[in-house]
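Milestone 3.1: sequence recovery, worked example.
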């Protein structure tokens, strides 16, 4: 239900400029984070509770609290299975609960981790990064299982030790666990099944016939299916996706959530866009970046990722960007922040490609009719953004002046020679 609602509820603009838009997914994740951060440090009742609440009622209340805590962990696991949480979030959650600190974790924190890992184990183990994390989690749990106090007594109860071992055994068995077959039956069906069970056991089937095997922590099959847009009426045949703006936005949202470049590559290619459609896709991303301040950085990052993986070409970017750059100064009248998207895009492209940066995409800024002052400020904004993102001293300057085509374009804008360009850029604080 949650997975379905994420695409049905509207997106509300942020209350304050610079904040992210309010979506169902964001509100849900914020609520989960608040619940997790409010996890009690101890599940022992306070002295005040012991004095005010009868013992039986207090036991029931403590059980409710514990059940809620474990249910929240299972819910977090299911958000991960439905690709609403990234792997790194799971790593942070486990670290917060049982990471190596001054004090050993409380028993209920270990229970939380066991509940979470059982809910996601198979899916987490299925990726290289997830497998490494799972091995680290298992090693930490094993250490906790054997932990002892100074007097030689076990730090944790037998119940917790068994719970840890059950999880480790489950992973060792490929996350396959046996479940007792349960379903409503009539008296006649019970008698018939009892006779059938007796015959099976007589033939050597044993008690295994009374159980079914289930894999713990498997991602629901409908999740992968739902990623394919154009289901139903929009699908021309099974497995085909429809290349449209909604599809491009969707796969970019997947990338924004997980920063999985390989998945972005696969999703883009799955629609097998033509060259014209690829240009159109870049136009959609650029339009979002220029017009929606909350999305400018992720759109810049997405375009850079597509270029670096050669899913799109520099020519595609140049063709899509040209008309927008030609009218950028006028666009600022209606969209005052549009230049900040250009800064974000230029900075990411520079840092990613450095001296291999293709300056041809900037031709529209150096043509006749363009304001050299506006263009110079525009380029400087991108250079300074690159320096903020991690460019070392003079490294951004080197990326510009040691790229002949780029240096000539920037020098033309500044109305100076390429030899003077380095000192001019350094005077600007680069």
């Amino acid at each position: 239900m949650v997975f379905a609602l994420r695409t049905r509820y509207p997106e509300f603009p942020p209350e304050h400029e610079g904040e992210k838009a309010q979506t169902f997914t964001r509100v849900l994740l914020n609520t989960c984070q608040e619940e997790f951060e409010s996890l009690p440090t101890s599940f022992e009742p306070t002295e005040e509770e012991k004095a005010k609440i009868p013992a039986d009622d207090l036991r029931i209340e403590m059980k409710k609290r514990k059940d809620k805590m474990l249910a929240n962990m299972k819910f977090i696991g299911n958000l991960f299975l439905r690709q609403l949480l990234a792997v790194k979030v799971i790593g942070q959650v486990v670290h917060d609960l049982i990471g190596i600190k001054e004090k050993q974790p409380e028993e209920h924190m270990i229970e939380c981790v066991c509940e979470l890992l059982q809910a996601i184990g198979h899916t987490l183990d299925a990726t290289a990064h997830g497998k490494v994390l799972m091995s680290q989690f298992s090693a930490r749990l094993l250490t906790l299982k054997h932990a002892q106090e100074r007097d030689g007594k076990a730090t944790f109860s037998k119940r917790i030790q068994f719970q840890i071992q059950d999880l480790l055994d489950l992973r060792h068995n490929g996350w396959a666990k046996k479940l007792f077959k349960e379903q409503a039956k009539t008296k006649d069906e019970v008698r018939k099944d009892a006779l059938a069970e007796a015959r099976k056991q007589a033939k050597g089937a044993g008690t295994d016939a009374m159980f079914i095997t289930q894999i713990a922590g498997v991602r629901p099959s409908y999740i992968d299916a739902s990623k394919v847009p154009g289901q139903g009426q929009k699908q021309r045949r099974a497995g085909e996706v429809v290349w449209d703006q909604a599809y491009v936005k969707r796969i970019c949202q997947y990338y924004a959530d997980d920063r999985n470049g390989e998945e972005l590559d696969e999703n883009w290619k799955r629609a097998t866009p033509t060259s014209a459609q690829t240009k159109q896709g870049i136009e959609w991303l650029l339009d979002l970046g220029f017009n929606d301040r909350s999305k400018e950085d992720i759109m810049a990052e997405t375009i850079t990722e597509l270029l670096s993986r050669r899913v799109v070409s520099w020519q595609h970017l140049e063709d899509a960007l040209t008309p927008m750059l030609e009218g950028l100064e006028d666009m600022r009248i209606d969209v005052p922040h549009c230049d900040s998207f250009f800064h974000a895009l230029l900075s990411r492209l520079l840092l990613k490609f450095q001296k291999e940066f293709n300056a041809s995409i900037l031709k529209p800024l150096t043509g006749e009719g363009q304001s050299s002052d506006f263009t110079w400020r525009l380029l400087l904004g991108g250079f300074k953004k690159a320096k903020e993102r991690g460019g070392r001293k003079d490294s951004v300057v080197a990326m510009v002046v040691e790229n002949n085509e780029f240096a000539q374009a920037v020098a033309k804008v500044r109305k100076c020679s390429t030899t003077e360009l380095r000192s001019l850029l350094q005077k600007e604080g680069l």
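Residues 273-427 form one domain. The two ends are 51 Å apart (CA to CA).
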